[in-house]
Amino acid sequence: MAKAKQLLEDLTFAGPHEVLRGDLALVGQPGVVYTPKEGRALPAVAFGHGWLQPAGRYRELLRHLASWGIVAAAPSTQRGPLPSHRLFADDLLSTLEMVTNVRLGPGAISVDPLKLGLAGHSTGGGAAVLAAAKAPAVRAVATFAPAQTIPSASRAAEQVECPGMHLAADDDLVAPAQGNAEVITRAWAGPAQLRTLPKASHLAVAEGSHWSQLLVHGKPHRATQRTVRALFTAFFLTHLTGTDKYRPLLDESVKAAKIVDLDEKEKAAH
Questions:
Q1: What predicted TM-score, i.e. pTM, was given to this entire model?
Q2: Cα angle at 229 between 225 and 16, to 5 degrees?
Q3: 141, 133 contact by CB (below 8 A)
Q4: Which of 71, 89, 135, 195 would disulfide-bridge 130, Cβ 3.0–4.6 Å?
Q5: How far apart are CA 31 and CA 22, in angstroms?
């Protein structure tokens, strides 16, 4: 437990890499990309924004991943009130393709096509699951407050064999864990973990303010953002780079993100 707590603390701080920011629109898709200043055969993660949210509300999360050596990109598509989750999933996969095949930065960066991950918040989390179901090349999927999609994210999860980590917000009135993160985790074909974050609402991971807060319950929460950054970093470094250094954090509960024992929960319900 002490080891996991220390790793969580360590990973809330920025990593050793200087970070560059780029515009995905330059290669044909609205969105942003954050990269370490240099590095060859880097891991890459495409991140799906939540309903109505601009990609800019996740800039510190993306920058944080990049500071730890992970290319992090977020398409800014399907931003309207009636998004196509299927097309958004395709955009996430296109984003991974772009960062893998297009020269990034001043040419001192390259992405390894065998080190690709997906992440997302809300319906962006659901879209990440849809994308992973179609792309066996994806090696890891992490979500915060994932929401069901059309087609169903939990149905798609039955085809996802890579590791999954789903973080549920304790005070989520928009996509409560019971019908969303929990169902997705139970359906997951590969190894999957569900954690709950206390005092977190649906928008806890989003940064800054945005007019959508008038429509969507919840607000930014710095403690949650720090925890999500640390857990996402540990998860992707472990599953995309092969390091075991951060595994104790993934294997143990911490006060800020308790692991849910779904078998125990099911027994208690009967």
A1: 0.96
A2: 130
A3: no
A4: 89
A5: 9
- For 13-50, how does the pLDDT look when each residue is reduced to its tens digit (9 = 90+)? 999 999 999 998 887 889 999 999 999 999 999 999 99
Tokens of residue 258, six digits? 């308790």
Count, in order, helices (H) and strands (E) of the chain. Answer: 9, 9
Nearest by Cα to 241 from 39, 7, 2:
39
Helix, strand, coil content of the chain in percent (nearest 5): 40, 25, 35
Dump pLDDT digits (tens) for 165-224.
Answer: 999 999 999 999 999 999 999 999 999 999 999 999 999 999 999 888 888 898 999 999
Q: In angstroms, how far is the first alpha carbon of the chain from the final one?
A: 30
- CB burial of residue 114 (10 Å; 0-12, 13-18, 19+): exposed
- Find out whether 228 and 30 touch, Cβ atoms under 8 Å: no
Using the structure block, give the residue that is written with the tokens 């891991």: 43
